[in-house]
Design brief:
The chain is an alpha/beta fold. The protein has one domain: Rossmann fold, CATH 3.40.50. The protein contains 7 helices and 10 strands. The strands form 2 sheets. It has a 6-stranded mixed β-sheet, sandwiched between helices. α3 packs across α4 and α3 packs parallel to α5. The longest helix is centred in the last third of the chain and has 16 residues. The relative contact order is 0.20. Bound molecules: adenosine-5'-triphosphate and magnesium ion. The site of adenosine-5'-triphosphate (ATP) has 12 residues, from β2 and α1. The site of magnesium ion has 4 residues, from α1.
Length: about 220
């Protein structure tokens, strides 16, 4: 079977002339179902750029991306939201929660966009929030949540719609050690129990301890 996600020779170049930065340099990497892949590397080594291209949020300058065997890098801008919505759950470094919506509403919104009806959206949102231990916080707005609670809300939102691929950028960075452990356990469970393909960018030894495989970036290149 083809990998859940495959990037082939992808590169990302930002800027021109003196400002030209090769953020990702000819990386080839497969992400398998049931796998928790950890992407590591120093600050500025291209981790977020790579993950964003894997998540079809950022277009590669060159190279190809395949999701479940389908070449998505060839798709037009108009077709990408559909791919993102059905195949991918993305947890951003900066959460990207809507500040005017409560934790529950942030998740319901994603489901409503997938045309799930209102009552069911609410039920699924509450179920997801329970899985990340936020039942009691569901009605709060992001401004009233701690960093860890925001992170957990963002993870719950990424899981709405049950995507086969989950990508998370520094998901434990703002969490206390106990909450961090819970999130890592949750991510590992997504891979091992739910069969998802999970890739995580992190510096956290807790993630390293549980990851199945590590991809190491340096200056945009995959060195291990
Ligand atoms: N939008 C952008 N425009 C120009 N340069 C960028 C842009 N985004 C990232 N870069 C540059 O590309 C390189 C890789 O950045 P990236 O954010 O992918 O690294 P990172 O490994 O995620 O770093 P960190 O650990 O600090 O989050 C860096 O040199 C960065 O300055
Ligand atoms: Mg980053």
């Amino acid at each position: 079977m083809e990998p859940a996600l495959l990037v082939k020779n992808i590169s990302k170049v930002y800027g021109r002339g003196e400002n030209r930065v090769v953020a990702v340099d000819s990386v080839t990497l497969a992400l398998e179902r049931r796998e928790l892949l950890l992407i590591m590397g120093p600050s500025g080594s291209g981790k977020t750029s790579l993950l964003s291209m894997m998540g079809c949020i950022l277009r590669p300058t060159s190279g190809e991306i395949y999701i479940e065997g389908r070449r998505v890098s060839a798709l037009s801008e108009a077709d990408l939201p559909d791919v993102r919505r059905h195949a991918l759950g993305f947890v951003f470094q900066a959460f990207n929660l809507f500040s005017a919506l409560t934790a529950a509403e942030n998740i319901e919104l994603v489901l409503r966009l997938k045309r799930v009806d209102k009552a069911r959206s609410r039920a699924i949102a509450m179920d997801l929030l329970a899985r990340v231990g936020l039942t009691k916080r569901a009605h709060l707005y992001p401004a009233d949540l701690s960093g860890g609670e925001k992170q957990r809300t963002a993870l719950a939102r990424a899981l709405a719609g049950d995507p086969p691929i989950v990508l998370a950028d520094e998901p434990t960075a703002n969490l206390d050690s106990k909450t961090g452990k819970e999130i890592v356990g949750l991510l590992k469970g997504l891979a091992e129990e739910s069969g998802k393909a999970v890739a995580v960018v992190s510096h956290d030894p807790k993630v390293e301890a549980l990851a199945h495989r590590i991809a190491l970036l340096e200056d945009g290149r995959l060195i291990a």
